[in-house]
Amino acid sequence: MAEITEEGNDKNMAQKRILLLTTGGTIASHMTSHGLVPTLTAEDILNVLPDMEKLCSLEARNLFRIDSTNMTCGHWKQIAREIETHYWEYDGFIVCHGTDTMAYTAAALSYMIQNSPKPIVLTGSQRPLEMEISDARMNLRDSILYALDDASSGVSLVFGGKIIAGTRAKKTKSMSYNAFSSINYPELAVMRDEHLVRYIEPRKMDGGPVFYHEMDPQVFLLKLTPGISPLILKEIFTRYNGIIVESFGVGGIPDSILQEFETLMQEYGTGKIVVMTTQVTYEGSNIGVYEVGKRVQEQFRLLEAYDMNLEAVFTKLMWILGCHPESYEQVRQMFYRTINYDVFC
Q: Which residues 6+ apart lie within 8 Å of 170 measured at CB?
């Protein structure tokens, strides 16, 4: 475990340039008679960070001002494209984002921008920046200090004093300041006041970053519930290229769903990618443990998520399909290749 202090790193940080990209969300919201609305600009956010000017050159750009519930694959592409366009002008990037879908965006950027030796940090807040009592300033400060550290790289989420790999973050609390957890993998580091304490040895990024520009939005997540009708599967297989099934426990699927799967896989199987995961947050899947899951393994061509985060499974499948793989074996190889700490099976 290595500890890095703000004071000890001043010389290295002073020359660095950081680009702040704003997308809206709670951090940029203003209270109106209709509720919170994201209205603050990048310049507004910079105005509350005057102390950071002595540590680095901080610049900001407005991408959009939306509630993060409206975030789409198209927005992810725009964020990635903006970072790619300005990649060689800056030493690090911070994306201000709403908390509700921030984990999805962090995972998506992990696949769209791979092997980045420069840090790409997502952050936001549970209370608006303009409120007197808010976690916004702390999260912004922590994000900047983390981005300025020489050992920081890749896509991560900084929130509530935690630094979490972009593929391992999940919003687990709806209102508390410590809203995000690292799922099935340790936090990369924590911020203690102005001190960065690393738990995971930083990875050395050989070569330059690799940018991807396409994501296939035709991916569907099916959450199984007791007594669910199998009739819904026909419509899903007709409309979507990738289907993620959130099973019970380590991988249980009802008999009625299994029977419909058998029919649909015979009809559509060669053109569809099916991923089995679990709706249980921690410890992952192992669908071969019980007979109901083992039958799935034996009868169908599918992928298993194991310890992967749901947000990572969803966006990784979109990325893989966006790359237009030539064979199912290529899909399998891409899915099980570890990217930004996403899977260890």
A: 103, 180, 181, 183, 281, 309, 310, 311
Q: Which two tokens stand for residue 126?
A: 């549970």
Catalytic residue among 23, 26, 105, 315: 26
> What residues form DSSP beta bridges with 189?
163, 198
Alpha carbons 108 and 247: distance in angstroms, whole number: 23
> 166, 109 in Cβ contact below 8 A?
yes
The predicted model scores a pTM of 0.92
pLDDT in tens, 300-328: 788 999 999 999 999 999 999 999 999 99
d(CA 46, CA 222): 41
The yes-or-no verdict on residue 262 having pLDDT over 70 is yes
Active site residue 281: no
Answer yes or no: are the C-beta atoms of 213 and 80 closer than 8 Å: yes
| Mean pLDDT in residue range 323-338 | 95
204 pLDDT above the threshold of 90? no
The residue count for the chain: 345
Sign of CA dihedral 224, 281, 211, 90: positive
Question: Is the per-residue pLDDT at 291 higher than 50?
Answer: yes
